[in-house]
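ingest -> fold -> write
write: protein_1
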Amino acid sequence: MKEVKVALIGTGFMGKTHGLAYRLLSTFCPADVKVRLRVLADVTEDLARAGARQFGFEDWTVGWESIFDYDIDAVDIVTPNLVHPDIAIEAARRGKHVMCEKPLAVNVAETRAMVDAVEKAGIVNMVCFNYRQTPAVAMAKKLIEEGQIGTIHHFRAVYLQDWCADPNSPWVWRFSAKHAGSGALGDIASHAIDYGRYLVGEFDEVVALTKTFVGERPIPHSRETGVVDVDDAVNMLIRFESGAVGSLEGSRFCYGRKNCLAFEINGSKGSLLFDWEHSNDLHFYSAQDPEDRQGYRDIKVGPMHPHAERFWPIPGIGMAYAETSILQACEFITAIAEGRDAVPNFRDGLQVAEIMEAVLRSAEAGSWVKVPRVA
Protein backbone atom coordinates (compact mmCIF):
# COMPACT_ATOMS: atom_id res chain seq x y z
CA MET A 1 0.00 0.00 0.00
CA LYS A 2 1.25 3.47 -0.91
CA GLU A 3 1.21 5.86 2.08
CA VAL A 4 1.33 9.64 1.57
CA LYS A 5 2.17 11.69 4.67
CA VAL A 6 0.69 15.20 4.48
CA ALA A 7 1.56 18.49 6.16
CA LEU A 8 -1.14 21.18 6.09
CA ILE A 9 -0.23 24.84 6.59
CA GLY A 10 -3.15 27.02 7.70
CA THR A 11 -6.31 26.52 9.75
CA GLY A 12 -8.69 29.12 8.34
CA PHE A 13 -11.71 28.43 6.15
CA MET A 14 -9.64 26.74 3.44
CA GLY A 15 -7.63 24.82 6.02
CA LYS A 16 -10.87 23.47 7.43
CA THR A 17 -12.08 22.55 3.94
CA HIS A 18 -8.86 20.72 3.05
CA GLY A 19 -8.78 19.04 6.46
CA LEU A 20 -12.30 17.72 5.95
CA ALA A 21 -11.38 16.45 2.49
CA TYR A 22 -8.43 14.46 3.81
CA ARG A 23 -10.52 12.94 6.59
CA LEU A 24 -13.00 11.60 4.01
CA LEU A 25 -10.47 10.70 1.36
CA SER A 26 -10.18 6.99 2.15
CA THR A 27 -13.72 6.52 0.84
CA PHE A 28 -12.84 7.89 -2.60
CA CYS A 29 -9.16 7.19 -3.27
CA PRO A 30 -7.98 3.83 -4.64
CA ALA A 31 -7.91 1.13 -1.96
CA ASP A 32 -4.12 0.79 -2.17
CA VAL A 33 -3.49 4.45 -1.27
CA LYS A 34 -3.43 5.64 2.34
CA VAL A 35 -3.30 9.27 3.48
CA ARG A 36 -1.58 9.96 6.78
CA LEU A 37 -2.29 13.36 8.33
CA ARG A 38 1.14 13.90 9.81
CA VAL A 39 1.42 17.53 10.94
CA LEU A 40 -0.45 20.84 10.83
CA ALA A 41 1.15 24.27 11.14
CA ASP A 42 -0.15 27.75 11.87
CA VAL A 43 1.18 31.04 13.22
CA THR A 44 0.25 30.50 16.89
CA GLU A 45 0.30 27.55 19.25
CA ASP A 46 -3.43 27.88 19.96
CA LEU A 47 -4.39 27.84 16.28
CA ALA A 48 -2.07 24.96 15.41
CA ARG A 49 -3.08 22.79 18.38
CA ALA A 50 -6.80 23.39 17.88
CA GLY A 51 -6.55 22.79 14.13
CA ALA A 52 -4.67 19.52 14.55
CA ARG A 53 -7.27 18.26 16.99
CA GLN A 54 -10.21 19.40 14.88
CA PHE A 55 -8.87 18.16 11.53
CA GLY A 56 -7.37 14.91 12.83
CA PHE A 57 -3.63 15.54 12.36
CA GLU A 58 -1.16 13.55 14.44
CA ASP A 59 0.92 16.56 15.46
CA TRP A 60 1.07 20.33 15.23
CA THR A 61 3.78 22.97 15.03
CA VAL A 62 4.14 26.76 15.01
CA GLY A 63 5.50 28.32 11.83
CA TRP A 64 5.61 26.64 8.45
CA GLU A 65 9.38 26.19 8.46
CA SER A 66 9.19 23.56 11.19
CA ILE A 67 7.01 21.15 9.19
CA PHE A 68 10.22 19.90 7.60
CA ASP A 69 11.32 18.54 10.96
CA TYR A 70 8.68 15.85 10.43
CA ASP A 71 8.63 12.85 8.10
CA ILE A 72 6.31 14.12 5.34
CA ASP A 73 5.78 13.48 1.63
CA ALA A 74 3.48 16.37 0.65
CA VAL A 75 2.76 19.95 1.66
CA ASP A 76 -0.68 21.57 1.34
CA ILE A 77 -0.55 25.39 1.43
CA VAL A 78 -3.66 27.30 2.53
CA THR A 79 -2.05 30.53 3.79
CA PRO A 80 -2.42 34.13 2.55
CA ASN A 81 -1.08 34.47 -0.99
CA LEU A 82 2.00 36.47 0.04
CA VAL A 83 3.74 33.49 1.63
CA HIS A 84 2.84 30.82 -0.94
CA PRO A 85 6.13 31.14 -2.89
CA ASP A 86 8.49 30.78 0.08
CA ILE A 87 6.72 27.64 1.29
CA ALA A 88 6.33 26.01 -2.12
CA ILE A 89 9.90 26.71 -3.20
CA GLU A 90 11.33 25.34 0.05
CA ALA A 91 9.10 22.28 -0.17
CA ALA A 92 10.29 21.68 -3.73
CA ARG A 93 13.93 22.09 -2.67
CA ARG A 94 13.35 19.34 -0.13
CA GLY A 95 11.63 17.07 -2.67
CA LYS A 96 8.12 17.35 -1.17
CA HIS A 97 5.04 17.32 -3.39
CA VAL A 98 3.01 20.54 -3.22
CA MET A 99 -0.64 21.53 -3.47
CA CYS A 100 -1.33 25.25 -3.15
CA GLU A 101 -4.40 27.44 -3.02
CA LYS A 102 -5.01 29.94 -5.79
CA PRO A 103 -3.76 32.37 -6.83
CA LEU A 104 -0.30 30.83 -6.52
CA ALA A 105 1.36 34.17 -5.77
CA VAL A 106 0.79 37.92 -5.84
CA ASN A 107 2.37 38.40 -9.29
CA VAL A 108 3.62 36.55 -12.36
CA ALA A 109 7.32 36.72 -11.43
CA GLU A 110 6.81 34.93 -8.13
CA THR A 111 4.42 32.44 -9.71
CA ARG A 112 7.03 31.60 -12.35
CA ALA A 113 9.62 31.06 -9.61
CA MET A 114 7.27 28.51 -8.05
CA VAL A 115 6.82 26.72 -11.38
CA ASP A 116 10.58 26.64 -11.96
CA ALA A 117 11.17 25.20 -8.49
CA VAL A 118 8.64 22.36 -8.69
CA GLU A 119 9.62 21.41 -12.22
CA LYS A 120 13.33 21.39 -11.37
CA ALA A 121 12.56 19.14 -8.40
CA GLY A 122 10.34 16.85 -10.46
CA ILE A 123 7.61 16.79 -7.82
CA VAL A 124 3.84 16.53 -8.17
CA ASN A 125 2.31 20.00 -8.01
CA MET A 126 -1.32 21.14 -8.06
CA VAL A 127 -3.13 24.48 -7.94
CA CYS A 128 -6.49 24.55 -6.17
CA PHE A 129 -9.08 25.46 -8.78
CA ASN A 130 -11.50 23.14 -7.01
CA TYR A 131 -14.59 24.28 -8.91
CA ARG A 132 -13.44 22.57 -12.10
CA GLN A 133 -13.86 19.28 -10.18
CA THR A 134 -17.64 19.85 -10.10
CA PRO A 135 -19.31 16.91 -11.92
CA ALA A 136 -21.71 19.19 -13.83
CA VAL A 137 -18.73 21.19 -15.12
CA ALA A 138 -16.85 18.03 -16.06
CA MET A 139 -19.99 16.95 -17.93
CA ALA A 140 -20.00 20.27 -19.77
CA LYS A 141 -16.41 19.58 -20.80
CA LYS A 142 -17.43 16.12 -22.05
CA LEU A 143 -20.29 17.53 -24.14
CA ILE A 144 -17.98 20.14 -25.66
CA GLU A 145 -15.32 17.55 -26.51
CA GLU A 146 -17.98 15.34 -28.10
CA GLY A 147 -18.97 18.24 -30.36
CA GLN A 148 -22.48 18.44 -28.93
CA ILE A 149 -22.56 22.26 -29.02
CA GLY A 150 -20.34 22.57 -32.10
CA THR A 151 -17.87 25.41 -32.57
CA ILE A 152 -17.90 27.71 -29.56
CA HIS A 153 -18.83 31.31 -30.31
CA HIS A 154 -19.52 32.88 -26.91
CA PHE A 155 -18.39 32.43 -23.30
CA ARG A 156 -20.06 34.46 -20.55
CA ALA A 157 -19.08 34.04 -16.92
CA VAL A 158 -19.63 35.76 -13.59
CA TYR A 159 -18.48 35.19 -10.05
CA LEU A 160 -20.51 37.38 -7.73
CA GLN A 161 -20.55 37.57 -3.94
CA ASP A 162 -21.72 40.12 -1.37
CA TRP A 163 -19.59 39.42 1.72
CA CYS A 164 -17.88 42.82 1.63
CA ALA A 165 -20.62 44.97 0.15
CA ASP A 166 -21.15 46.55 3.59
CA PRO A 167 -18.52 49.33 3.86
CA ASN A 168 -18.27 48.63 7.60
CA SER A 169 -17.23 45.02 7.17
CA PRO A 170 -13.71 44.64 8.61
CA TRP A 171 -10.39 44.89 6.86
CA VAL A 172 -8.74 41.52 6.17
CA TRP A 173 -5.64 40.53 4.23
CA ARG A 174 -7.71 40.00 1.07
CA PHE A 175 -8.02 43.81 0.80
CA SER A 176 -4.23 44.26 0.60
CA ALA A 177 -2.28 44.18 -2.66
CA LYS A 178 0.86 43.19 -0.72
CA HIS A 179 -0.82 40.14 0.80
CA ALA A 180 -3.29 39.16 -1.94
CA GLY A 181 -1.96 40.61 -5.21
CA SER A 182 -5.43 41.60 -6.38
CA GLY A 183 -8.95 41.71 -5.00
CA ALA A 184 -12.02 40.22 -6.61
CA LEU A 185 -9.85 39.35 -9.61
CA GLY A 186 -7.59 36.84 -7.85
CA ASP A 187 -9.95 35.88 -5.06
CA ILE A 188 -12.96 34.82 -7.11
CA ALA A 189 -12.72 35.81 -10.79
CA SER A 190 -9.69 33.54 -11.15
CA HIS A 191 -12.09 30.57 -10.84
CA ALA A 192 -14.17 31.91 -13.73
CA ILE A 193 -10.96 32.44 -15.72
CA ASP A 194 -10.06 28.81 -15.04
CA TYR A 195 -13.49 27.78 -16.34
CA GLY A 196 -12.80 29.75 -19.52
CA ARG A 197 -9.47 28.02 -20.11
CA TYR A 198 -10.82 24.58 -19.17
CA LEU A 199 -13.94 24.74 -21.31
CA VAL A 200 -13.11 27.08 -24.20
CA GLY A 201 -9.33 27.34 -24.46
CA GLU A 202 -6.52 29.84 -24.09
CA PHE A 203 -7.10 33.58 -23.84
CA ASP A 204 -5.53 35.61 -26.65
CA GLU A 205 -6.16 39.14 -25.39
CA VAL A 206 -8.30 41.05 -22.90
CA VAL A 207 -9.64 44.52 -22.27
CA ALA A 208 -10.76 45.27 -18.73
CA LEU A 209 -11.76 47.74 -16.07
CA THR A 210 -11.48 47.45 -12.31
CA LYS A 211 -13.17 49.40 -9.53
CA THR A 212 -12.57 49.89 -5.81
CA PHE A 213 -15.77 51.09 -4.14
CA VAL A 214 -14.56 51.35 -0.53
CA GLY A 215 -11.04 52.69 0.03
CA GLU A 216 -10.76 52.11 3.79
CA ARG A 217 -12.17 49.57 6.22
CA PRO A 218 -12.16 49.27 10.00
CA ILE A 219 -9.39 47.12 11.45
CA PRO A 220 -10.81 44.60 13.94
CA HIS A 221 -10.21 45.43 17.63
CA SER A 222 -8.76 48.82 16.69
CA ARG A 223 -9.86 52.40 16.15
CA GLU A 224 -7.76 52.56 13.00
CA THR A 225 -8.74 51.81 9.43
CA GLY A 226 -6.92 49.77 6.83
CA VAL A 227 -6.35 50.89 3.26
CA VAL A 228 -8.01 48.89 0.49
CA ASP A 229 -5.67 48.95 -2.51
CA VAL A 230 -7.14 46.10 -4.55
CA ASP A 231 -10.13 45.83 -6.88
CA ASP A 232 -13.61 45.30 -5.46
CA ALA A 233 -14.90 44.46 -8.92
CA VAL A 234 -13.49 43.56 -12.33
CA ASN A 235 -15.09 43.38 -15.79
CA MET A 236 -13.38 42.11 -18.92
CA LEU A 237 -13.91 41.23 -22.54
CA ILE A 238 -12.00 38.28 -23.94
CA ARG A 239 -10.74 37.15 -27.32
CA PHE A 240 -9.88 33.45 -27.25
CA GLU A 241 -7.23 31.89 -29.47
CA SER A 242 -9.96 29.68 -30.96
CA GLY A 243 -11.83 32.72 -32.29
CA ALA A 244 -14.52 32.64 -29.61
CA VAL A 245 -15.34 35.84 -27.75
CA GLY A 246 -16.29 36.24 -24.12
CA SER A 247 -17.08 38.41 -21.15
CA LEU A 248 -16.28 37.86 -17.50
CA GLU A 249 -17.24 39.74 -14.34
CA GLY A 250 -16.11 39.30 -10.76
CA SER A 251 -17.44 41.31 -7.83
CA ARG A 252 -17.71 41.04 -4.07
CA PHE A 253 -20.26 43.88 -3.98
CA CYS A 254 -23.42 42.21 -5.25
CA TYR A 255 -26.04 42.08 -2.49
CA GLY A 256 -28.07 38.91 -2.79
CA ARG A 257 -25.34 36.98 -4.59
CA LYS A 258 -23.72 34.62 -2.11
CA ASN A 259 -21.62 32.37 -4.31
CA CYS A 260 -22.81 32.90 -7.86
CA LEU A 261 -20.20 31.31 -10.10
CA ALA A 262 -21.96 30.86 -13.43
CA PHE A 263 -21.24 30.49 -17.13
CA GLU A 264 -23.10 30.26 -20.41
CA ILE A 265 -21.43 28.88 -23.53
CA ASN A 266 -23.03 29.25 -26.96
CA GLY A 267 -21.88 27.19 -29.93
CA SER A 268 -22.86 26.47 -33.52
CA LYS A 269 -24.99 23.47 -32.46
CA GLY A 270 -26.18 24.35 -28.97
CA SER A 271 -25.52 25.92 -25.60
CA LEU A 272 -24.58 25.09 -22.01
CA LEU A 273 -25.62 26.92 -18.86
CA PHE A 274 -24.37 26.40 -15.30
CA ASP A 275 -24.66 28.22 -11.96
CA TRP A 276 -22.77 26.99 -8.89
CA GLU A 277 -25.64 28.05 -6.61
CA HIS A 278 -27.52 25.23 -8.40
CA SER A 279 -24.43 23.06 -8.71
CA ASN A 280 -26.21 19.77 -9.34
CA ASP A 281 -27.84 20.96 -12.57
CA LEU A 282 -26.29 21.44 -16.00
CA HIS A 283 -28.56 22.99 -18.64
CA PHE A 284 -28.01 21.83 -22.21
CA TYR A 285 -29.70 23.18 -25.34
CA SER A 286 -29.35 21.30 -28.63
CA ALA A 287 -30.26 23.08 -31.85
CA GLN A 288 -30.41 19.63 -33.43
CA ASP A 289 -33.54 18.68 -31.48
CA PRO A 290 -36.80 18.80 -33.44
CA GLU A 291 -38.09 22.36 -33.59
CA ASP A 292 -41.22 21.58 -31.61
CA ARG A 293 -39.25 20.40 -28.55
CA GLN A 294 -36.24 22.66 -28.48
CA GLY A 295 -35.35 24.23 -25.16
CA TYR A 296 -32.87 23.90 -22.33
CA ARG A 297 -32.92 20.44 -20.76
CA ASP A 298 -31.96 20.09 -17.11
CA ILE A 299 -29.34 17.38 -16.59
CA LYS A 300 -29.38 16.23 -12.96
CA VAL A 301 -25.96 15.19 -11.70
CA GLY A 302 -25.75 11.50 -10.89
CA PRO A 303 -23.46 8.47 -11.00
CA MET A 304 -23.43 8.39 -14.80
CA HIS A 305 -21.55 11.73 -14.91
CA PRO A 306 -17.81 12.36 -14.55
CA HIS A 307 -16.55 12.19 -10.93
CA ALA A 308 -20.07 11.77 -9.50
CA GLU A 309 -19.95 7.98 -9.64
CA ARG A 310 -17.69 8.10 -6.57
CA PHE A 311 -20.44 9.58 -4.43
CA TRP A 312 -24.16 8.81 -4.56
CA PRO A 313 -26.02 5.96 -6.31
CA ILE A 314 -28.78 8.02 -7.96
CA PRO A 315 -29.17 11.52 -9.43
CA GLY A 316 -30.69 14.27 -7.35
CA ILE A 317 -29.10 13.48 -3.98
CA GLY A 318 -26.80 16.42 -4.52
CA MET A 319 -23.16 17.39 -4.26
CA ALA A 320 -21.71 20.47 -2.60
CA TYR A 321 -18.51 22.42 -1.97
CA ALA A 322 -16.90 19.78 0.25
CA GLU A 323 -17.13 17.20 -2.52
CA THR A 324 -15.10 19.38 -4.90
CA SER A 325 -12.35 19.55 -2.28
CA ILE A 326 -12.47 15.78 -1.79
CA LEU A 327 -12.12 15.23 -5.53
CA GLN A 328 -9.28 17.77 -5.64
CA ALA A 329 -7.41 16.08 -2.78
CA CYS A 330 -8.01 12.69 -4.39
CA GLU A 331 -6.45 13.92 -7.64
CA PHE A 332 -3.39 15.22 -5.77
CA ILE A 333 -2.83 12.13 -3.62
CA THR A 334 -3.54 9.69 -6.46
CA ALA A 335 -1.11 11.54 -8.74
CA ILE A 336 1.58 11.15 -6.07
CA ALA A 337 0.81 7.45 -5.65
CA GLU A 338 0.82 6.83 -9.41
CA GLY A 339 3.85 9.01 -10.16
CA ARG A 340 2.03 11.21 -12.68
CA ASP A 341 1.21 14.90 -13.09
CA ALA A 342 -1.76 16.33 -11.21
CA VAL A 343 -4.39 18.45 -12.99
CA PRO A 344 -4.55 21.42 -12.81
CA ASN A 345 -0.89 22.02 -12.01
CA PHE A 346 1.31 25.05 -11.31
CA ARG A 347 1.65 25.77 -15.04
CA ASP A 348 -2.12 26.21 -15.16
CA GLY A 349 -1.78 28.57 -12.20
CA LEU A 350 0.93 30.50 -14.03
CA GLN A 351 -1.22 30.90 -17.16
CA VAL A 352 -4.07 32.25 -15.02
CA ALA A 353 -1.56 34.63 -13.39
CA GLU A 354 -0.53 35.87 -16.86
CA ILE A 355 -4.20 36.50 -17.67
CA MET A 356 -4.78 38.37 -14.42
CA GLU A 357 -1.70 40.52 -14.91
CA ALA A 358 -2.87 41.34 -18.46
CA VAL A 359 -6.26 42.31 -17.00
CA LEU A 360 -4.65 44.71 -14.52
CA ARG A 361 -2.43 46.21 -17.23
CA SER A 362 -5.45 46.66 -19.47
CA ALA A 363 -7.47 48.31 -16.71
CA GLU A 364 -4.63 50.77 -16.11
CA ALA A 365 -4.03 51.50 -19.79
CA GLY A 366 -7.65 51.36 -20.98
CA SER A 367 -6.77 49.23 -23.99
CA TRP A 368 -6.58 45.66 -25.24
CA VAL A 369 -3.62 43.70 -23.88
CA LYS A 370 -2.17 40.50 -25.34
CA VAL A 371 -1.98 37.57 -22.91
CA PRO A 372 1.49 35.91 -22.90
CA ARG A 373 1.44 32.14 -23.35
CA VAL A 374 3.33 30.10 -20.79
CA ALA A 375 6.21 28.40 -22.60
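write: protein_2
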Amino acid sequence: MIKTENLSKQFGNFEAVKSLNLEVMPGEIYGFLGPNGAGKTTTIRMLVGLLKPTSGKVYIAGYDLEQAPISAKSLVGFIPDRPYIYEKLTAREFLNFVGGIYGMSEAEIERKAPGLLEFFDLKNWADELLESFSHGMKQRVVYASALLHEPKVVIVDEPMVGMDPRGARLLKDAFRDFAHQQGRTIFMSTHTLEVAEEVCDRIGIISHGRLIAEGTMSELRSQSRSAEANLEDIFLKLTGGEEDKELIQSLKG
Protein backbone atom coordinates (compact mmCIF):
# COMPACT_ATOMS: atom_id res chain seq x y z
CA MET A 1 0.00 0.00 0.00
CA ILE A 2 3.00 2.27 0.69
CA LYS A 3 6.21 1.61 -1.18
CA THR A 4 9.41 3.59 -1.56
CA GLU A 5 12.29 2.83 -3.90
CA ASN A 6 15.70 4.30 -3.06
CA LEU A 7 14.00 7.37 -1.63
CA SER A 8 16.53 10.11 -0.87
CA LYS A 9 16.44 13.75 0.14
CA GLN A 10 19.38 16.12 0.21
CA PHE A 11 19.52 19.66 1.62
CA GLY A 12 22.68 21.22 0.23
CA ASN A 13 25.50 18.90 1.27
CA PHE A 14 23.40 17.21 3.94
CA GLU A 15 21.63 13.97 2.99
CA ALA A 16 18.64 13.69 5.34
CA VAL A 17 17.25 10.45 3.88
CA LYS A 18 19.45 7.93 2.14
CA SER A 19 18.11 5.34 -0.33
CA LEU A 20 15.13 4.38 1.82
CA ASN A 21 13.27 1.23 0.75
CA LEU A 22 10.00 0.54 2.55
CA GLU A 23 6.96 -1.59 1.82
CA VAL A 24 3.90 -1.39 4.06
CA MET A 25 1.03 -3.76 3.35
CA PRO A 26 -2.77 -3.35 3.53
CA GLY A 27 -4.11 -3.97 7.03
CA GLU A 28 -0.77 -3.21 8.65
CA ILE A 29 0.15 -0.72 11.39
CA TYR A 30 3.74 0.27 10.73
CA GLY A 31 5.76 2.18 13.31
CA PHE A 32 8.54 4.44 12.06
CA LEU A 33 11.03 5.26 14.81
CA GLY A 34 14.29 7.11 15.10
CA PRO A 35 16.23 9.66 17.16
CA ASN A 36 15.73 13.38 16.61
CA GLY A 37 17.18 14.37 13.25
CA ALA A 38 17.15 10.80 11.94
CA GLY A 39 14.99 11.65 8.90
CA LYS A 40 11.49 10.67 10.09
CA THR A 41 9.68 13.94 9.38
CA THR A 42 11.51 14.41 6.07
CA THR A 43 10.37 10.93 5.05
CA ILE A 44 6.77 11.63 6.04
CA ARG A 45 6.73 14.90 4.10
CA MET A 46 7.89 13.03 1.01
CA LEU A 47 5.29 10.30 1.52
CA VAL A 48 2.44 12.83 1.57
CA GLY A 49 3.81 14.97 -1.26
CA LEU A 50 4.78 18.03 0.78
CA LEU A 51 8.45 17.61 -0.10
CA LYS A 52 9.92 16.52 -3.41
CA PRO A 53 12.56 13.78 -3.19
CA THR A 54 16.03 14.43 -4.53
CA SER A 55 15.83 10.95 -6.03
CA GLY A 56 13.79 7.78 -5.71
CA LYS A 57 10.09 6.97 -5.86
CA VAL A 58 7.00 6.91 -3.63
CA TYR A 59 4.03 4.71 -4.50
CA ILE A 60 0.63 4.88 -2.77
CA ALA A 61 -1.65 1.93 -3.60
CA GLY A 62 0.33 1.49 -6.81
CA TYR A 63 0.15 5.14 -7.86
CA ASP A 64 3.44 6.90 -8.50
CA LEU A 65 3.19 10.01 -6.30
CA GLU A 66 5.19 12.09 -8.76
CA GLN A 67 3.34 10.95 -11.90
CA ALA A 68 -0.19 10.73 -10.45
CA PRO A 69 -0.22 13.03 -7.40
CA ILE A 70 -3.99 13.60 -7.25
CA SER A 71 -4.84 9.90 -7.45
CA ALA A 72 -2.25 9.05 -4.80
CA LYS A 73 -3.09 11.87 -2.40
CA SER A 74 -6.82 11.20 -2.61
CA LEU A 75 -6.19 7.85 -0.89
CA VAL A 76 -4.24 9.34 2.02
CA GLY A 77 -5.28 10.87 5.31
CA PHE A 78 -2.44 12.87 6.87
CA ILE A 79 -2.27 13.89 10.52
CA PRO A 80 0.72 16.14 11.34
CA ASP A 81 2.12 16.52 14.84
CA ARG A 82 0.65 20.01 15.08
CA PRO A 83 -3.02 20.60 14.21
CA TYR A 84 -3.32 23.12 11.37
CA ILE A 85 -6.92 24.28 11.28
CA TYR A 86 -9.06 27.34 10.54
CA GLU A 87 -9.94 28.47 14.04
CA LYS A 88 -12.82 30.72 12.97
CA LEU A 89 -14.75 27.64 11.81
CA THR A 90 -16.72 25.28 13.99
CA ALA A 91 -15.76 21.61 14.12
CA ARG A 92 -18.70 20.74 11.86
CA GLU A 93 -17.79 23.48 9.37
CA PHE A 94 -14.17 22.31 9.31
CA LEU A 95 -15.22 18.76 8.42
CA ASN A 96 -17.48 20.15 5.69
CA PHE A 97 -14.54 22.14 4.34
CA VAL A 98 -12.16 19.17 4.31
CA GLY A 99 -14.79 16.89 2.79
CA GLY A 100 -15.26 19.40 -0.02
CA ILE A 101 -11.53 19.38 -0.73
CA TYR A 102 -11.71 15.61 -1.22
CA GLY A 103 -14.67 15.96 -3.57
CA MET A 104 -17.23 14.51 -1.20
CA SER A 105 -20.87 15.45 -1.70
CA GLU A 106 -22.81 17.28 1.01
CA ALA A 107 -24.89 14.15 1.55
CA GLU A 108 -21.75 12.03 2.10
CA ILE A 109 -20.35 14.53 4.58
CA GLU A 110 -23.63 14.77 6.46
CA ARG A 111 -23.77 10.98 6.67
CA LYS A 112 -20.22 10.42 7.92
CA ALA A 113 -19.29 13.52 9.94
CA PRO A 114 -21.64 13.05 12.94
CA GLY A 115 -20.32 9.55 13.65
CA LEU A 116 -16.71 10.73 13.59
CA LEU A 117 -17.47 13.71 15.83
CA GLU A 118 -19.18 11.39 18.28
CA PHE A 119 -16.39 8.79 18.16
CA PHE A 120 -13.77 11.42 18.98
CA ASP A 121 -15.94 12.80 21.80
CA LEU A 122 -16.68 16.07 19.99
CA LYS A 123 -20.44 15.73 19.49
CA ASN A 124 -21.31 18.35 22.11
CA TRP A 125 -18.71 20.73 20.66
CA ALA A 126 -19.61 20.32 16.99
CA ASP A 127 -20.92 23.87 16.60
CA GLU A 128 -18.35 25.64 18.76
CA LEU A 129 -15.52 27.66 17.19
CA LEU A 130 -12.24 25.76 17.02
CA GLU A 131 -10.39 28.69 18.61
CA SER A 132 -12.03 27.72 21.91
CA PHE A 133 -10.75 24.12 21.74
CA SER A 134 -7.83 22.73 23.72
CA HIS A 135 -4.81 21.36 21.83
CA GLY A 136 -6.01 17.79 22.32
CA MET A 137 -9.50 18.62 21.07
CA LYS A 138 -8.07 20.32 17.99
CA GLN A 139 -5.99 17.22 17.34
CA ARG A 140 -9.12 15.05 17.55
CA VAL A 141 -10.82 17.33 15.00
CA VAL A 142 -7.85 16.81 12.68
CA TYR A 143 -8.17 13.03 13.10
CA ALA A 144 -11.88 13.16 12.33
CA SER A 145 -11.28 15.27 9.22
CA ALA A 146 -8.47 12.97 8.01
CA LEU A 147 -10.68 9.90 8.28
CA LEU A 148 -13.78 11.53 6.76
CA HIS A 149 -13.10 10.44 3.17
CA GLU A 150 -12.27 6.88 4.30
CA PRO A 151 -8.66 6.88 3.07
CA LYS A 152 -6.86 3.63 2.32
CA VAL A 153 -3.71 4.99 3.98
CA VAL A 154 -3.35 7.09 7.14
CA ILE A 155 0.04 8.71 7.78
CA VAL A 156 0.49 10.06 11.30
CA ASP A 157 3.31 12.10 12.82
CA GLU A 158 3.40 11.78 16.63
CA PRO A 159 -0.19 10.55 17.13
CA MET A 160 -0.37 10.94 20.91
CA VAL A 161 0.80 14.56 21.16
CA GLY A 162 -1.70 16.51 23.26
CA MET A 163 -3.92 13.48 23.85
CA ASP A 164 -5.27 12.75 27.33
CA PRO A 165 -5.46 9.06 28.38
CA ARG A 166 -9.03 8.67 27.12
CA GLY A 167 -8.18 10.24 23.77
CA ALA A 168 -5.10 8.04 23.47
CA ARG A 169 -7.17 4.91 24.11
CA LEU A 170 -9.76 5.97 21.55
CA LEU A 171 -6.99 6.49 19.03
CA LYS A 172 -5.38 3.11 19.64
CA ASP A 173 -8.75 1.40 19.23
CA ALA A 174 -9.41 3.38 16.04
CA PHE A 175 -6.03 2.37 14.62
CA ARG A 176 -6.66 -1.31 15.31
CA ASP A 177 -10.14 -1.21 13.81
CA PHE A 178 -9.00 0.80 10.81
CA ALA A 179 -6.15 -1.58 10.00
CA HIS A 180 -7.11 -5.02 11.28
CA GLN A 181 -10.87 -4.91 10.65
CA GLN A 182 -11.09 -2.63 7.61
CA GLY A 183 -7.83 -3.69 5.93
CA ARG A 184 -6.41 -0.18 5.66
CA THR A 185 -2.83 0.92 6.26
CA ILE A 186 -1.39 3.09 9.04
CA PHE A 187 2.11 4.55 8.90
CA MET A 188 2.95 6.05 12.28
CA SER A 189 6.01 8.02 13.38
CA THR A 190 6.35 8.33 17.14
CA HIS A 191 8.75 8.88 20.02
CA THR A 192 6.39 7.03 22.36
CA LEU A 193 7.99 3.60 22.22
CA GLU A 194 5.40 1.98 24.52
CA VAL A 195 2.64 2.92 22.07
CA ALA A 196 4.63 1.59 19.11
CA GLU A 197 5.30 -1.70 20.90
CA GLU A 198 1.65 -2.04 21.93
CA VAL A 199 -0.01 -1.09 18.64
CA CYS A 200 2.32 -1.70 15.68
CA ASP A 201 2.52 -4.91 13.66
CA ARG A 202 5.95 -4.05 12.31
CA ILE A 203 8.49 -1.39 13.18
CA GLY A 204 11.23 0.31 11.17
CA ILE A 205 14.08 2.15 12.87
CA ILE A 206 15.86 4.93 10.99
CA SER A 207 19.15 6.52 12.03
CA HIS A 208 21.20 9.14 10.16
CA GLY A 209 18.81 8.84 7.21
CA ARG A 210 19.16 5.06 6.81
CA LEU A 211 16.82 2.24 7.77
CA ILE A 212 18.92 0.21 10.21
CA ALA A 213 16.36 -2.36 11.39
CA GLU A 214 12.86 -3.52 10.48
CA GLY A 215 10.45 -6.23 11.51
CA THR A 216 8.11 -7.52 14.19
CA MET A 217 9.17 -7.31 17.83
CA SER A 218 10.53 -10.85 17.71
CA GLU A 219 12.47 -10.05 14.54
CA LEU A 220 13.89 -6.88 16.08
CA ARG A 221 14.96 -8.83 19.15
CA SER A 222 16.76 -11.25 16.88
CA GLN A 223 18.43 -8.47 14.89
CA SER A 224 19.62 -6.76 18.08
CA ARG A 225 20.58 -10.07 19.73
CA SER A 226 18.41 -9.21 22.72
CA ALA A 227 16.01 -12.09 23.26
CA GLU A 228 14.05 -10.60 26.17
CA ALA A 229 14.42 -6.89 25.41
CA ASN A 230 11.55 -4.42 25.15
CA LEU A 231 11.39 -1.88 22.34
CA GLU A 232 13.14 0.83 24.35
CA ASP A 233 16.16 -1.41 24.98
CA ILE A 234 16.30 -2.46 21.32
CA PHE A 235 15.97 1.14 20.13
CA LEU A 236 18.74 2.39 22.41
CA LYS A 237 21.04 -0.47 21.45
CA LEU A 238 20.57 0.01 17.71
CA THR A 239 20.78 3.81 17.70
CA GLY A 240 23.67 4.21 20.15
CA GLY A 241 21.53 5.55 22.99
CA GLU A 242 22.51 2.64 25.21
CA GLU A 243 25.90 4.30 25.82
CA ASP A 244 24.16 7.49 26.97
CA LYS A 245 21.95 5.44 29.28
CA GLU A 246 24.99 3.73 30.82
CA LEU A 247 26.72 7.10 31.26
CA ILE A 248 23.72 8.53 33.10
CA GLN A 249 23.60 5.47 35.37
CA SER A 250 27.31 5.83 36.15
CA LEU A 251 26.86 9.49 37.04
CA LYS A 252 24.03 8.55 39.39
CA GLY A 253 26.27 6.01 41.07
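write: annotation protein_2
Residues 29 and 186 are 5 Å apart (CA to CA).
Residues 246-253 have pLDDT under 50 and may be disordered.
pipeline exit 0
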